[in-house]
Amino acid sequence: MSKSIFNGLIPPLLTPLLPDDTIDRQSVQRLVEHILAGGGNGVFALGSSGEGPFLSLAQRRTLVQSTAEVLHGRGLLLVGVSECSVRRVKAVMDALNLPGVDAFVLTVPFYGQFSQPHIQRDFFKAIADESSRPLLLYNIPQAVHAVVEPETLAELSHHPHIVGVKDSHGDLERFQRLVWLSRETDLAVLQGAESVAGLSMLAGADGLVCGLGNLVPAWFTAIIEAAHANQPDRIQEIQQRIVALGRLHTYNHWLSCLKTAASLLGLCEPLVSAPLPRLSADETARIRSLLQEQGLSPI
Prior knowledge:
The chain is an alpha/beta fold. Helices cover 45% and strands 11% of the residues. It has one domain: TIM Barrel (Alpha-Beta Barrel), CATH 3.20.20.70. An eight-stranded parallel sheet has the order 1-8-7-6-5-4-3-2. Strand 3 (76-80), helix 3 (86-96) and strand 4 form a beta-alpha-beta unit. The longest helix has 15 residues, at 57-71.
């Protein structure tokens, strides 16, 4: 599979839940169709926005299977497989190696401290050596307590199974170094931090993997199109709207807020995995007002 296909908007898909904690298949279909209609090039299932670390293996399998069935080859399906040991990652990869999956996405172990480059290299290579699918590496130090430096990522990109990086650090200087290094290695570089989406596309990113893409995919595809057309003023205009909408993350736990916003737009229920909190009526009302201010139409 060519690395060049990993581009455009690939949002980290929310995981719709029902009151009994099973996967809401109808809402999976609504979300995926909404993203595709907004110009998305696919979805990333079981990332941070998808509650991947909170879900049982059975829930994860159902979510991946449902998403693949809805996509039906119309877009990419990336699947998160992060765990805290080589053995556990391989077990999850085996369980989620389902028809329609295009690539796996992997962080360094998230329990403990794994900041040493040689440990990171050994870990990723051990997984890549046995991966049945292409592998994208996921740099998100906010969650895993370690930065994977651009030079380490570029070195790993020489492995035939490692095709790309999702970088959610938000450090634009490091991101630019990664883009420069990737030009020599053919590594697909995707930005996950919404606040620097526009600047990242201008810096040469291949695409965006942003949680707000569940709500307003057309805004992010417009940024991508404006970057390709070299329209910085247009990018700045859309980026300001994204930053304003991103205030919804501040009313409680960011993921509960994001899912509540999705529910107000008729995309899924606001149900989240314990111990994530449910929002109060006042918090929900504030998100409703923010959506209205940004020209969206909550139900």
